[in-house]
Amino acid sequence: MLNIVLFGPPGAGKGTQSERLINKYGLVHLSTGDIFRANIKGETELGMLAKSYMDKGALVPDEVTINMLRSEVLNHPDSNGFIFDGFPRTNAQAVALDAFLESLNTTISVMLALEVEEEELRKRLLLRGQSSGRPDDVNPEIIQNRINVYNNETKPVKDFYLAQGKFVSINGIGEIDEISNRLYTAIDAIK
Ligand code: AMP
């Protein structure tokens, strides 16, 4: 199985690049943000809970997120592998993901981290806000909060994979195709 953590701050291009990777490598795309948004749209209990955090640019509690992620993985028993997009976002999530994958006799193959500096992220997110319909992309304060949450809570997750020799940094600046090619090269090197 090929299990990829696609890592990076909000606006780094994780969603765009995930679409390309799932087509090229036949993987299942699990974006926790997308799953929460689908639940908000469907007005589920989980959606209402998630919305109260997402609207502020805060993280949804670990226990809720981890349980949801586990059930999504179990929904795809015949998968060749997964792209985890936007998960894990805390060390507790990374530890839980490792234990869960081990129980399924598999593991994370690689963490690919899209590196983009903050000023560029702010620009991209505001631009995306004009068309994405995402309330958390419109307000500069909420965008800044998401970037701060990334720096404080999510960035340290890279050390978890660094310690396992699974961390690969990818330059996230440039043409979309160019960045995809960097990702393909990194994946083909570990396959
Ligand atoms: P994203 O679509 O990845 O930018 O996520 C949008 C929002 O969903 C985040 O700002 C969080 O509020 C929530 N979210 C997504 N993934 C997670 C996660 N792994 N842990 C906690 N909250 C998450």
What is this entry, summarized?
This protein is α/β, with parallel strands linked by helices. The chain contains 9 helices and 5 strands. Residues 10, 32-33, 36, 53-54, 57-60, 65, 86-87, 89, 93, 136, 146 line the site of adenosine monophosphate (AMP).
Structure description:
The protein is built from nine helices and five strands; from the N terminus they run E-H-E-H-H-H-E-H-E-H-H-H-E-H. The protein is an alpha/beta fold. The chain has a single domain (2-190), classed as Rossmann fold (3-Layer(aba) Sandwich). It has a five-stranded parallel β-sheet with strand order 2-3-1-4-5, with helices on both faces. Helix 4 (62-74) runs parallel beside helix 5 (91-103) and helix 6 crosses helix 7. The relative contact order is 0.19. The protein binds adenosine monophosphate. Adenosine monophosphate binds next to helix 2 and helix 3.
Please outline the helices and strands:
Elements lengths: L3 E4 L6 H12 L2 E4 H10 L3 H10 L7 H13 L7 E4 L5 H13 L6 E6 L2 H15 L7 H15 L2 H7 L3 E5 L4 H15 L1
Parallel strand pairs: 1-3, 1-4, 2-3, 4-5
Helix pairs in contact: 1-9, 2-3, 4-5, 6-7
Bound molecules: adenosine monophosphate (AMP).
